[in-house]
Task: inverse folding
């Protein structure tokens, strides 16, 4: 039994296996043998294996980074995010590098913390945060200042995304998403586009990162907004992969994953 996976750049990887022996004939040298073994042993479906192979090539993962992505159910979270209906002004960008759910188990925050603590922890662990976001994200600054009408306003985190060619503003919220967060982000994006965005860049994008959210409330709140903006939630511990796998199976009606 075997499959041939096309992973871009006119290169293929041929996998064939029988019983417990796996023979791998790679035509792409970007993926290390160690990562091949991790993918084959840590994934339950051909689709998941292909996904991580593509991701390894795109992001140039080390063994530790790949292990973390598999343990954090990155594949399941990515696929579930693709099933969400995106706002048209985000879809029009031609690429969606955002997830609906982010895992930030690396922060090691205490049980009680404030938004300022969350921001500082992300800055201190920026390398791990970029791994979760994707390496096309480049961090510009924290508490990025914009001035409007003589008053100073500060954006929690400002990034630039190479693929989208635009600024990405992050606002961090400890609690549940609230509709009033939208108008504040609208304001920040307008300020960035007028004052910071270069002529060759696309309109700025906003990401509201909340501890939890109700999708129906989010849809109502964003229905009249013209700004490219998304709302995602975060968690501070690794997710239960079996729950996400079950959700994914129900949503996209894929065959049950093999142990």
Result:
């Amino acid at each position: 039994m075997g499959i041939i996976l096309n992973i871009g750049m006119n290169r293929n990887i041929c996998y064939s296996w029988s019983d417990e022996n796996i023979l791998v004939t790679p035509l792409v040298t970007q993926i290390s043998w160690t990562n091949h073994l991790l993918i084959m042993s840590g994934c339950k479906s051909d689709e998941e294996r292909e996904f991580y192979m593509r991701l390894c090539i795109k992001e140039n993962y080390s063994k530790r980074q790949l292990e973390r992505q598999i343990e954090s159910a990155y594949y399941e979270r990515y696929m579930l995010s693709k099933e969400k209906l995106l706002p048209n002004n985000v879809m029009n960008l031609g690429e969606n590098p955002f997830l609906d759910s982010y895992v930030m188990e690396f922060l090691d925050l205490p049980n009680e913390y404030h938004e300022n603590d969350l921001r500082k922890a992300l800055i201190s662990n920026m390398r791990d945060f970029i791994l979760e976001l994707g390496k096309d994200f480049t961090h510009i600054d924290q508490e990025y200042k914009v001035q409007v009408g003589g008053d100073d306003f500060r954006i929690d985190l400002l990034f630039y995304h190479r693929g989208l060619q635009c600024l990405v503003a992050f606002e961090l919220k400890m609690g549940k998403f609230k509709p009033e967060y939208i108008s504040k982000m609208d304001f920040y994006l307008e300020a960035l586009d007028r004052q910071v965005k270069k002529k060759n860049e696309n309109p700025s994008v906003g990401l509201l990162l909340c501890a939890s959210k109700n999708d129906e409330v989010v849809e109502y709140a964003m229905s009249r907004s013209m700004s490219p903006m998304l709302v995602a939630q975060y968690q501070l511990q690794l997710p239960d992969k079996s729950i996400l796998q079950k959700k994914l199976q129900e949503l996209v009606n894929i065959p049950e994953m093999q142990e």
